Amino acid sequence: FIMAKQVEQLEKEKKELQERLKNQEKKIDYFERAKRLEEIPLIKTAYEEQRVHDMELWEQQEEERITTLQSEREKALEHKNRLSRMLEDRDLFEARLKASRRTVYEEKLKQFQERLAEERRNRLEERKKQRKEERRITYYREKEEEEQRLREEQLLK
Questions:
Q1: I need a labelling partner for 75 at 20 to 30 A (CA). Which of 60, 64, 112, 149 fits?
Q2: Cα dist. 1→5, 7, 8, 13, 91 in Å?
Q3: Which residues does UniProt call coiled coil (predicted)?
């Protein structure tokens, strides 16, 4: 009997606890919903204020960017005008430099052509000697083969 009472008491406490939790959950849901309903207009106004502020900031930054670009362009034009006075000197320097480098190039090219011609002559001469030697060796070999053939014919007779 006591055990049954204890079990019944425990179940009753469990149900009360669940009911309290459910009521508490409903209250929290109600407060959250109410809070959101109150916050929505405030969030909208804050969003609009932020958007206006961002737009003003963007316009200000855009104006600053444009003015800096204009000032940089003016400086670049001044720099170009200042440097354009040196254009003739630069062209003269380039011409001298190219001429000196051209003479060095032509001298090296001439030396290379001479070495190339010399190497060609040497190789031609070497090939000529080699062919002459090959013809001489071939002649003596053929002569020897002919003599050998004649000797064999003599022996056969």
A1: 60
A2: 6, 10, 10, 18, 119
A3: 3-34, 59-149
